Amino acid sequence: MEKMVNHSHVLIVGCGLSGLSLCLKLPNKLRVTVLCKEGLMDANTAWAQGGIAAVSSDDDSFENHIRDTLIAGAGLCRTDVVEKVITQAPQRIAELKSWGVPLDPSLHLEGGHSYRRIHHVGDKTGQIIQQTLIKEAQKRSNVQILEQHILIDFILNKQVTPEVTGKTQVIGAYVLNKKYQRIETFLAHAIVVATGGMGKVYLYTSNWSGATGDGVAACFRAGCRVANLEFTQFHPTLLYHPESPNFLISEALRGEGGELLNSKGEAFMKNAHPLGSLAPRDIVARTIDLALKKSGEPCVYLNMTHLSQQTFAQKFPVIFEHLKNLNIDPSTQWIPVVPAAHYCCGGVIADLSGKTDLDGLFVIGESAYTGLHGANRLASNSLLECLVMAHECAQVLAESFSGYSGTLPKDVPVWHYPKKSDDDELVVVHHMWDEIRTLMWNYVGIVRTNKRLARAMERLKLINQEIRNYYEDCWPNADIIELRNLGLNALLIVKSALKRRESRGSHFNKDHPETLQEFAKETVLWPGDEFR
Ligand code: SIN
Predict the structure, then answer these.
(1) Rounded to whole angstroms, how far apart are CA atoms 292 and 276?
(2) Do residues 205 and 327 make contact, with C-beta atoms less than 8 angstroms apart?
(3) pTM for this one?
(4) Are 498 and 454 in contact (CB under 8 A)?
(5) What is the pLDDT of residues 407-458, one digit of tens each?
(6) What residues are annotated to the active site?
(7) Mean pLDDT on 44-64
């Protein structure tokens, strides 16, 4: 097999907002490689309808935004991180505009926010950001963007020079080039993981199909700690329609007066929380879950009929078009919705610049755990975190490369290809994919119990063992690489959920419904903990 080795100063794995804004901020003298798992537009960023939270009106203040973030985070946010992110939000918004993102002058309101502070581009904020930043990145001669490249594992200094002592350093990655179905070696002085979330661990999710948490799993396997993975945020309103899986109905609709109703037309959120349909996400998702379990019905409804067709279409053009194609007119019909997995509040432990437990390895964006979101992320704080972390990471990298003259190893072990696997076995891979996602939805969903978590744990241990056996003598393809990551991430979520014997934010366990002071801390997992 031909040996393919690619050298860069900085290797960025992932092409969403954090990866792209980082590559735009790195000094031109650095050779930067950006890997996209599929196409240039394939990242959760491109799917974001909502926007970016940043204080920018005189009646609002940083204190308000900080308070809203801390309340949503249910006692688990790191206040220093929250303050640092929120106070630099206006600068990051200005920068986004300077790259050409045409943010609307009006501001949206979303759940948990006490003021209008969501910067957006209609309801296609993420799509426009992604298109604009890709265009900007393509203009940079120091940046190469490679599509169809999926991360497998990192290469550590100890694998190349076993006698080396001291801290483990990450020096590269093995990557599957999907187009040519071969494993390539990428060596770099710094590797930045920006692979986004892991919503595909669940059967129902608002995430794009590649959101399998590849970066988190690879970092954990390499030796990084992870934290707070039990806090999967469930978005209350995914469109419920057989012909349209994964389509989000933005919280901004509720910000414009949308009300959640059951099939009898009762506004059930009114009794659940003083903020009604605009209560924090964990509360709305749980209340809907309860209502559906009681009624046995498949969905609840969002009533937007107070807006004329023209106003709706003007405010939310993408959603309007999508509904129209399904013969739903939101000015006369209620929109059927269900909750779905949306965001991972935990991730690889990192500081705001993305520094992890391993030298040479940074993690930014949704894959990272910084302490910003606590037990439940405030809406539209996630794209903000991507921008701030990319900014901080760029500064640290620029500094570390000034006057730097390090070299990369000349020779690294090539990927060891096992015997070619039998294609019939792919049926097993697909079966395990489905099994993990169904099991996670049914046993580790919005409402958890000790028994369900324990069952999930037992089954996932076996599934992970089966995956390992299969992976070891399998010619790697995207499905098996993703399955291996999905299996590990599912196990880490369950392990974290079992450790938190209380309910807080987006983790609710019926056997431990109370919030306890003794658990007002992070759930940290070390490599090896997953099977203990
Ligand atoms: C939404 O538009 O409802 C999603 C916003 C977010 O998750 O931050």
Answers:
(1) 17
(2) no
(3) 0.95
(4) yes
(5) 888 888 888 877 666 666 778 889 999 999 999 999 999 999 999 999 999 9
(6) 281
(7) 95
What is the per-residue burial (b if ≥16 Cβ within 10 Å, else e) of 353-377?
bbbbbbebbbbbbbbbbbbbbbbbb
Cα(277) to ligand 1 centroid in Å equals 14
pLDDT of residue 101: 98
Q: Which of 233, 250, 322 to mutate to test the pocket of ligand 1 (most atoms within 8 A of CB)?
A: 250
Tell me, in angstroms, the distance from the centre of ligand 1 to residue 50's CA: 5
Helical residues (DSSP H) of 140-280, grouped into ranges: 157-160, 214-222, 252-255
Residues with CB under 6 A from ligand 1: 49-50, 250-252, 379-380, 382
Residue 531's pLDDT is 78
Distance between Cα 218 and ligand 1 center (Å): 27
Domains along the chain with CATH numbers: 4-47+125-227+343-400 (3.50.50.60), 239-339 (3.90.700.10), 425-531 (1.20.58.100)
Give the atom of ligand 1 at the shortest distance from the alpha carbon of 343.
7
Contact criterion met (CB below 8 Å) for 511 and 450: yes
pLDDT digits 0-9 by tens, 2-26 = 567 999 999 999 999 999 999 999 9
* Distance from C-alpha of 87 to C-alpha of 155, rounded to nearest angstrom: 37
> What's the helix, strand, coil split of the chain in %, to 5?
40, 20, 40
Tokens 């308000």 -> residue? 64
Ligand 1 nearest-atom number relative to CA 378: 8
